[in-house]
Specification:
mainly alpha, flat
Length: 147
């Protein structure tokens, strides 16, 4: 494995930022998308659809240029960060705190929603990135001499 292949790990977070920018543009153009009570808001804020789509496209783009098994495992670091924090939150939280709502649900409140932004969304983006790389591997063969 060469140092060029390491580009796949930080690219997940770059793709997530592109998705966040897309979400902000969507919300400016269509304000109801910024409310979780709407279907569009559910797709944007609960399922992180723009971030996942951006990650799929970025994963495909980088895998096409720098094919590596590391791209297929790009979801692992965000998964480890998320798992560590979920376990820590569950271990140290009060009885009335919901670990699910803090990291995955719609009922997070205040600063707890930042856990979804900084931990859950990159995990979803990591899965999207790896899916994009896998699609490229299966459908769109890398250029000759790529490995």
């Amino acid at each position: 494995m060469g140092y060029r292949e390491l580009v796949h790990l930080p690219s997940v977070y770059g793709a997530a930022l592109v998705g966040v920018a897309a979400s902000l543009v969507i919300i400016v153009i269509y304000p109801p998308a910024g409310r979780q009570a709407t279907f569009s808001g559910l797709l944007l804020e609960q399922f992180w659809l723009p971030e996942v789509v951006a990650a799929i496209l970025v994963g495909w783009f980088f895998y096409r240029r720098i094919p590596s098994r590391l791209a297929l495992l790009a979801w692992v670091p965000p998964a480890l960060f998320l798992a560590w924090n979920v376990l820590d939150w569950h271990r140290t939280s009060l009885q009335y705190d919901s670990t699910w709502d803090t990291f995955f649900g719609r009922n997070c409140g205040g600063s707890e929603c930042l856990y979804e932004l900084f931990l859950t969304m990159p995990f979803y983006a990591g899965i999207g990135y790896s899916v994009g790389a896998l699609i490229c591997k299966i459908v769109d063969r890398p250029p000759a001499g790529g490995r």
